[in-house]
Amino acid sequence: MVLRDKMFFVRLEEVKLLANIKSAEKRILITEKRTAINKARKSEIKTYIKKFDKAIDNGNFDEAKTLLRTIDKKLKRAAHKNVIHMNNASRKVSRLTKKLNSAM
Questions:
Q1: Within the chain, how many helices (H) and strands (E) appear?
Q2: DSSP 3-state assignment of 48?
Q3: Global pTM?
Q4: 6: left (phi over 0), alpha (psi -120 to 50) or beta
Q5: pLDDT tens across 37-95, in order?
Q6: Calpha distance 38→33 (Å, rounded)
Q7: What gap in Å lies between CA 96 and CA 99, rounded to an integer?
């Protein structure tokens, strides 16, 4: 809720108290579950990218290639599930590929 350029954040527990309809309570639970899954997906992708960068820094290009394939798969899956935008996924894969090719 935005009020005079000040943002107020409401905790989910407080929202549950406000929900009077059973379907609204259910949507809150589903939103919590989906948020956790989306955060896990994003975190996993970031971890793989860090491993990829470390492999390139160490000169381990074979490992970097396998990690790039994994990252590509994970990013496409996240884009398909609307966790991130498709263009964002494509841009990340492109930049990582460019980084790998320039390092070799």
A1: 4, 2
A2: helix
A3: 0.76
A4: beta
A5: 999 999 999 999 999 999 999 999 999 999 999 999 999 999 999 999 999 999 999 99
A6: 9
A7: 5
DSSP character string of 6-20: EE----HHHHHHH--
Crossing angle for the helix pair 22-57 and 61-80, to the nearest 10 degrees: 160
For 63, the token pair is 């490992």
Q: Are 103 and 95 in contact (CB under 8 A)?
A: no
**Cα–Cα dist 83/48, whole Å:** 16
Place of tokens 């059973």: 22
> Which pair of structure tokens corresponds to residue 5?
């350029």
Using CB atoms within 10 Å of the CB of residue 89, give its burial: 0 to 12 exposed, 13 to 18 middle, 19+ buried: buried
d(C-alpha 101, C-alpha 98), whole Å: 5
